[in-house]
Write a structure and sequence with these properties.
It contains two helices and eight strands; from the N terminus they run H-H-E-E-E-E-E-E-E-E. The protein is α+β, with helices and mostly antiparallel strands. It folds into two domains: 31 residues; 97 residues, Lipoxygenase-1. A four-stranded antiparallel β-sheet has the order 4-1-6-7, with no helix packed on it. Strands 3-2-5-8 form a four-stranded antiparallel β-sheet, with no helix packed on it.
Length: 136
């Protein structure tokens, strides 16, 4: 064998020491105070929901939190919400339960962003449907 085992052990220890700082930065926990400036400020967003068939219930979630829920659903519903709206856009999760007797039904979502731009997207399905729509 060539080389000193003590020298090899020192080199391995030095390499681990060099990787320690980047690994510590990647694996540390982030506090709320550090994340707060990254969050977008709350803005007014309008949602208009148009159903082809009246569902038994519907729920809208944003970031895992329920922001709108109805058990008595009409075929046309409108609501203004105040949500954080980053420049990348917003994801809204729609959970719908259409009656078992209905065939394929649809939901048209008209999204009115804070800048006045409107975007329309659709969800098709029957029975229980969960879908995430992304709005710019």
């Amino acid at each position: 064998m060539r080389g000193s085992p003590l020298l090899r052990a020192f080199l391995v220890f030095f390499a681990i020491l060099l990787l320690g700082y980047p690994l510590q930065r990647l694996t540390r926990t982030t506090t709320v105070a550090e994340v707060q400036p990254l969050l977008a400020k709350t803005q007014k967003i309008g949602l208009l929901l148009t159903f082809t068939t009246r569902p038994d219930s519907m729920r809208v979630r944003h970031l895992g939190k329920e922001i709108w829920s109805e058990n008595q659903v009409n075929t046309l519903m409108e609501k203004e919400l105040f949500l954080p709206y980053p420049k990348e856009g917003i994801d809204l999760a729609f959970d719908l339960h259409w009656p078992a007797s209905s065939s394929v039904a649809a939901l048209r979502v008209t999204f009115a962003g804070p800048d006045g731009e409107t975007v329309e997207k659709s969800i098709w399905g029957s029975g229980d449907v969960s879908e995430v729509l992304t709005f710019p």
